[in-house]
Amino acid sequence: MTASPVTAPQPAFVTFSEKLRLMKSNGLYRSYFPTAHMSTSPGQTLHEGEEIEVWCTNDYLGLSQHPELIRAQIDSTARHGTSMGGSRNIAGTSTTHAELEERLARWHGKERALVFSSGYVANFESLSVLLSEIPGIVAFSDENNHRSLIEGIRRSQCEKRIFPHNDVDALEEQLAACDPDQPKLIVFESVYSMDADMSPVSRICDLAERYNALTYLDETHAIGAMGPTGAGLCEAIGETRPTFVQGVFGKALGTVGGYVAGPDTAVDFIRSHAPGFIFTTSLPQACMDATLKALELVQDGEGLRRRLTDRSLRMKAALRERDIPFLDAAHHIIPVMIPGSERVRRVTDLLLEKHRIYVQPINFPSVPLGTERLRVTVPPYRTDEQIDGFAQALQECLANA
C-alpha cells in the first residue's frame, strides 16, 4: 500500500498561513494559557503543574470559587443533570430560568429580562433584532464600544453614527442633525474596561429625552461591583432612564451567561426573533441555580464591594509608589500602560517565568497600536502582601524588559 501524495496547500489556506505568520512576527498572535483554577485557593491556578497567581481575572468578587455557589451548582446538578437537552423553546426553559429572569427585571426596574448564553450573544442578538425591525432607525454608538455592540449594529444594516468616546457635545450635534421624528437608539457602556473610565450616563439620558431617542446601556463591568445592591453604575448614581440594560453573569457574578432587560414587548420580540437565542441549547439549570445564589450574595454584598474598592486603591498606591504608569479611575479595573506589543509580551513572560504571576497582555485589536497594557484586577481576597509582591515583581520586570 503506497502512501498518499502530499498535496500543495489550497490558496485560501496559504493566505491564512501568511496572515498568521505576520501576526506572530509583529507580536499580535494570541496563545491560549491552559490553567486549572483551584476553589480552595482563590486567585491561584495550576499551569503545567505549577501553582501561579492570576491578576487579570474578570471574576471581580471571587464568587466563582465561593463555597455557596459551588454547593448550589453541585446540588442542582445532582437533581437536574448536566444539560437542559434543548433550546429555550424546546424543553429548555427551567423553573430557575423563569425565576432568574423575573428577578433580573426587578433588579433593574424593568418590565422583562431575557437570559442568553453569554454577554456577547445578548448584545449582538438584542441589537441586531431591535435595529432591524424599527424602520428608519439610526444607531448612535460610542467609538469605544465593545465588539459585541459594534457587530450587533453592523448586522442590522441600519444607519449608524459613531460619536467620540464619552463626548456628549458631539453626540448632541449628531442627534440634532437628524429628523426629530426619526427613530434613534444610543448605544453605550457604563464602565469601559480597557480605559477604566465611566460614561456620563445621566447626561446621555438627558439627550435621549431631548431628542426622543431610545438608549441601550451595557453594564457588563459594573454589574455586581457598583451600586447599593450591585445592579451597576445606574443604581450607584440613581439613574433609571436607560431603555435597555445589558449585563452578564460571567464576571462579578462568577458563573456564565448574559442578559438584557427592558420593556416587555421589546424583550418579548427579541425572545421571539433572535436566532442566537432560538437556535441554541439552553444554559443548564445547575448554572442558573448557581447564578441565583450569586445574585443573592451580590445583592447583599456591600461588604464585598467595599473590600474590592479597598484592594483596588491599595494596588494603585503600590503602583504609584514605584512610578509604574496606570490609568486611574473611580472603579476596580486598573490598566497598567506598557506600550509596544513586543515589550508588553516580554513583561508578561518575565512575570510568569520569574515570579509565577500570570497577567494577559492586552494588545491590538482590543486596544489601539501603541497603547498596549495590562488589565489588572484585585479581588477582595487579595492581601496587602500579595499586592505589594505583585507591584514589586512588575517593577523588576519592567526594568528588565
TrEMBL record:
Reactions the enzyme catalyzes: 6-carboxyhexanoyl-[ACP] + L-alanine + H(+) = (8S)-8-amino-7-oxononanoate + holo-[ACP] + CO2
Any GO molecular function: 5-aminolevulinate synthase activity
Enzyme Commission number(s) from the entry: 2.3.1.47
Signal sequence extent: none
Keyword 4Fe-4S among record annotations: no
Cofactor: pyridoxal 5'-phosphate
EC main group: transferase
Domain Aminotransferase class I/classII large residues, every copy: 54-394
Gene3D superfamilies: Aspartate Aminotransferase, domain 1, Type I PLP-dependent aspartate aminotransferase-like (Major domain)
Similarity section: Belongs to the class-II pyridoxal-phosphate-dependent aminotransferase family.
Descriptive protein name: 8-amino-7-oxononanoate synthase
Organism in which the protein naturally occurs: Streptomyces tamarix
Gene name of this polypeptide: hemA
